[in-house]
Amino acid sequence: DADVTQTPRNRITKTGKRIMLECSQTKGHDRMYWYRQDPGLGLRLIYYSFDVKDINKGEISDGYSVSRQAQAKFSLSLESAIPNQTALYFCATTSGGEAFFGQGTRLTVV
Amino acid sequence: LAKTTQPISMDSYEGQEVNITCSHNNIATNDYITWYQQFPSQGPRFIIQGYKTKVTNEVASLFIPADRKSSTLSLPRVSLSDTAVYYCLVGDDNFNKFYFGSGTKLNVKP
Asked: How many beta-carbon contacts under 8 Å exist across A and B?
């Protein structure tokens, strides 16, 4: 089983819809992150969490919200999806400087 | 954020050694240097990490000069499967401060 699992792997949704991307990890780490990646670009940080009670905005948090349900679970929500949120989304967990990434969720907003 | 500068792309042939250099002029005393590899539509994967001098593992070597303002990832005898994007990251344990630039797209040819 993968250390970091993201669901769904692919999703097409309509403008204005609410959508949740889920992430779970089996590494036992406290720190979790959500990133988005646009074609040909690097990863940009959306939100991060150092533990269940600690949630922080990243570089591009507008239009997104998160929930840390447990140490192992960190969900990303788009309250009202818009087309420019079409991207590849990655969840990660870290121990020190080493990060473990999920396989990604490809989200298309039409 | 300790930003980094890498070549946008590099070409190589199978069996050659590939060296990718990264500049990080603003590296802080507590920062270390980490390299990640990313295949298309997959999450980045940790390759190697170092603080100074030379680090070697089963996949790559990392060379860091005394002033630490740059580093070089060395991939010995690359194969087609090494075609990927390589990211150089600089930071301490606060992974949320790691800056993912566009990375270096390595294309290995037969």
From this structure: 55
Look at residue A1 and tell me whether its pLDDT is greater than 70.
no
Distance of alpha carbon B83 from alpha carbon B79, whole angstroms: 8
Nearest CB to A101 within list B44, B92, B103 = B44
Chain A hits for B44, Cβ within 8 Å: 43, 90, 99, 101
| Average pLDDT of span A25-29 | 94
pLDDT tens column, A39-56: 888 899 999 999 999 999
Alpha-carbon span A3 to B42, nearest angstrom? 14
C-beta neighbour count of B77 within 10 angstroms:
10
Answer yes or no: do A103 and B43 touch at CB < 8 A.
yes
Are the C-beta atoms of A59 and A50 separated by less than 8 Å?
Answer: no
